[in-house]
Amino acid sequence: MTPTLVRQHLPHAGAAPRVDLRARARDWSEIQERMLVPLYEAVYERLDVGSATRLLGLGCGSGLSLLMAAARGAAVTGVDASPERMALARERLRPEAAGTRARPEARLVDGSPRDTAEPGAPGYTLVTAFEPIGCLAGDSDGLAGVLAEAMPLARRGAAVVLAGWGPPERCATASVLRVATKLAEPLRTSGSWRPACRDDLEDVAHRAGLRPDGSGRVACPFGYADVDSAVRGLKSTGLFDAAMTATDQAQVDKELTEALHPHQRQDGTVWMPNVFRYLIARTP
């Protein structure tokens, strides 16, 4: 979901949309990131994440997945290319922050996976790439390279978790994401929406030299207090950047509002059931 390690670059054609990156990061942290909590929980439960876990989170965003792992006793390291989201992650993972149980080992590193290397430190037992792929054309291209950087830092046989969107017929949000494709069509950019394919995650694992070792599906409904929150949350994912480049922010807001109308309930809330898929792979 996040425009960080994998989707940090806007399309080359056209002028980049003017975006308040701090506001977008805050919208991600306060509105959108929680939609993936069921995915984080399912993966951590299946892999028995706990005090013996050394976790490296790729594209960790504003740190919610790291906080959940740390609460289970894991030693966590997160890396992300967005300074704005990393600032929010640092707030969340401060040991003295009220309500957190993050261990002192929690580390947050701006940049790329290689920047997390610590001479003499034991290898990571778990590497996560929770940003779902499979809904933007070319969105998996950068992930294989990021994984290649991370693999030397992991132990032999360490688990690597990749996440992706489920079949469009199981994801109500797919109809809304099609707005991105319609508006971005004039640019014919690789950043426009496309339906998820069955083997997206396996293809990335194969390119990274990883061995698939199980998968699962998780219900991750997108629920918002109102349409405005839904628009802000969805735009915070970066999935509509190409559309804003091809048109403008006002047009994207208008089209998104219209597309969300069928998912709005009588009380004004917005509800879209979705299914996400995860793949567990192993390092050689």
Describe this structure in words.
With 284 residues, this protein is of the alpha/beta class. The chain has a domain at 21-171 and 193-222 and 273-282: Vaccinia Virus protein VP39 (Rossmann fold). It has helices spanning 21-32, 37-46, 64-71, 83-92, 141-150, 174-184, 200-207, 227-235, 241-246, 249-260, and strands at residues 54-58, 75-80, 107-110, 124-133, 154-165, 211-219, 222-224, 270-272, 275-282. The protein has a seven-stranded mixed sheet with strand order 3-2-1-4-5-9-6, sandwiched between helices. Strands 7-8 form a two-stranded antiparallel sheet. It is globular. The two termini are 27 Å apart. Its EC number is 2.1.-.-.
Q: What is the strand arrangement across the widest sheet?
A: 3-2-1-4-5-9-6
Level of helix content? 25-40%
Q: Architecture of the domain at 21-171 and 193-222 and 273-282, according to CATH?
A: 3-Layer(aba) Sandwich
The CATH class of the domain at 21-171 and 193-222 and 273-282 turns out to be Alpha Beta
Spatial separation of the terminal alpha carbons: 27 Å
Indicate the low-confidence ranges by residue numbers: 1-14
Per DSSP, the total helix count is: 10
Report the count of strand segments. 9
Structural class: alpha/beta
CATH superfamily of the domain at 21-171 and 193-222 and 273-282: Vaccinia Virus protein VP39
Task: Describe the largest sheet.
Answer: 7 strands, mixed
Mean pLDDT: 87
Q: Indicate the proportion of strand residues.
A: 15-25%
Cα radius of gyration in angstroms:
18 Å
Classify the fold: give the CATH topology of the domain at 21-171 and 193-222 and 273-282. Answer: Rossmann fold
Characterize the overall form: globular
Order of helices and strands: HHEHEHEEHEHHEEHHHEE
Protein name: Class I SAM-dependent methyltransferase
Domain Methyltransferase: 56-117
Keywords: Methyltransferase, Transferase
Region (Disordered): 95-119
